[in-house]
Backbone:
């Protein structure tokens, strides 16, 4: 029984095999762009939190390695415990270059030597970058001995009377030496594979401490500007802008500031409506569970659940993480329904969606305080509602289900006037309003028979979802 979504497996021989968002086709042109580029540049892959950005980058890293690039992946958020971002970058770069060299056999020996040289220049720079009076645990990423740190701190402390201009010139010289060593490293990589680049993927930058994120961008810009070195930054630009403004003030031009560091932007497209929901239904075994428990009507109920819930979550642009949580809760609901009882897929989908999308509307709904003049405009304003309305679910259907719920709650005084208003709607109004009215009447009418309205399972569904509130999930 699968309750929580685990980390996606990325097979080394087919990294996009388990791609559930239809993004496999994005990889070839992006890889070709990297392969055929020249010089050095920084590419930002922009996508919101929980949109599958990290998974795409991890898959792409494996593919870039397959294509012969020396490629590393660094989760900046997991490494911002370090005072200096350069430590993590050089540490991961060392591992990537050693792996690349090992695959090249004896011809990779010179490449390892060049990496050692690059590390030495990096260590020299680090001694200058280390803050006075602070000891840094490098966690094995760099071979900087404690004595070296102590000496750097002592030298910095006693240098008050030295020539500051000489120190400044020495610092500039060390940066040039590091860049040259890095450029030579990239040339060595290209000598083993002419189209190969040193590709450094840095993810989750927007989740880091603001000071760490800015320092990392500074290091990328000023230290790693060497031909043959490409940076790919996985970011949520809106969140990163917020981090920058938290340091420099709410009126600061964060977008303009980022342009100093990022040469190109690529916005990761949104998944197609229902794609991820369909994958999650398979992953959590909901398809098989429905067949086992509700044999006779399982196909119809399953289609209701999958289409309605997938469309609603897509319309609201729910993050993939929230979609996972919602489908996990759905799994628990289905497991706790006795065999052969009705699932009431459309109402279950609507309530599960409301629970995650708007807790206030959800609370009002389950308490019978449904104000359609307040609810429907908010649903009409969902960012992708027009897109999903063409194929899956529409505003009229949603409103009809709210009216059916009101009917089940014995509130005909709220239902009948609205239905009558739709029946009397002047055909001269806009086509959209006429279409919506017809959708409401058709959906409502499908549940009516000789003025008797069948209940839609609202009360049972509320109880079933309430049971899931007693399940507590712990993540370690």
Residues:
């Amino acid at each position: 029984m699968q309750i929580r979504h685990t980390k996606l497996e990325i097979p080394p021989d087919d990294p996009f095999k388990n791609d559930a968002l239809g993004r496999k086709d994005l990889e070839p042109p992006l890889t070709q762009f990297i392969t055929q580029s020249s010089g050095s540049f920084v590419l930002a892959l922009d996508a919101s939190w929980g949109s599958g950005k990290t998974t795409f980058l991890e898959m792409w890293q494996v593919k870039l390695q397959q294509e012969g690039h020396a490629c590393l992946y660094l989760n900046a958020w997991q490494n911002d415990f370090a005072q200096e971002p350069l430590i993590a970058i050089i540490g991961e770069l060392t591992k990537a270059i050693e792996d690349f060299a090992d695959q090249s056999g004896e011809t990779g020996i010179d490449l390892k030597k060049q990496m050692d040289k690059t590390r030495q220049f990096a260590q020299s720079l680090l001694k200058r970058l280390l803050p006075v009076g602070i000891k840094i645990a490098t966690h094995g990423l760099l071979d900087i001995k404690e004595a070296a740190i102590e000496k750097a701190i002592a030298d910095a402390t006693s240098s008050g009377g030295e020539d500051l201009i000489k120190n400044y010139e020495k610092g500039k010289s060390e940066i040039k030496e590091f860049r040259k060593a890095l450029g030579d490293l990239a040339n060595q990589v290209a000598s083993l594979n002419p189209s190969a680049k040193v590709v450094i993927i840095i993810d989750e930058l927007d989740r880091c401490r603001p000071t760490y994120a800015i320092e990392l961008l500074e290091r990328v810009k000023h230290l790693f500007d060497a031909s043959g070195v490409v940076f790919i930054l996985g970011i949520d630009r809106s969140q990163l802008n917020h981090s920058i403004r938290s340091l420099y003030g709410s009126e600061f031009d964060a977008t303009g500031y980022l342009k100093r560091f990022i040469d190109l932007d690529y916005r990761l497209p949104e998944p197609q409506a229902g794609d991820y929901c369909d994958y999650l239904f398979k992953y959590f075994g909901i398809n098989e569970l429905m067949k086992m428990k509700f044999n006779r009507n399982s196909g119809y109920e399953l289609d209701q659940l999958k289409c309605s819930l997938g469309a609603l979550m897509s319309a609201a642009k729910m993050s993939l993480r929230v979609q996972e949580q919602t489908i996990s809760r759905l799994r628990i609901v289905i497991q706790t329904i006795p065999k052969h009882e009705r699932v009431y897929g459309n109402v279950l989908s609507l309530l599960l969606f409301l629970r995650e999308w708007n807790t206030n509307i959800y609370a009002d709904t389950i308490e019978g305080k449904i104000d359609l003049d307040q609810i429907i405009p908010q649903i009409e304003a969902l960012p992708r509602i027009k897109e999903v309305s063409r194929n899956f679910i529409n505003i009229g259907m949603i409103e009809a289900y709210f009216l059916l719920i009101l009917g089940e709650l014995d509130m005909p005084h709220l239902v009948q006037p609205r239905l009558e208003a739709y029946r009397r709607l002047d055909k001269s109004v806009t086509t959209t309003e006429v279409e919506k009215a017809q959708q409401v009447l058709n959906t409502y009418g499908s549940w009516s028979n000789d003025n008797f309205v069948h209940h839609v399972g609202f009360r049972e569904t509320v109880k079933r979802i309430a049971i899931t509130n007693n399940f507590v999930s712990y993540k370690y």
Q: What stands out?
A: Strands lie at 41-46, 70-75, 198-203, 229-235, 264-267, 448-449, 452-453. The chain has 21 helices and seven strands. Residues 307 and 392 are 6 Å apart (CA to CA). Residues 164-192 form the longest helix (29 residues).
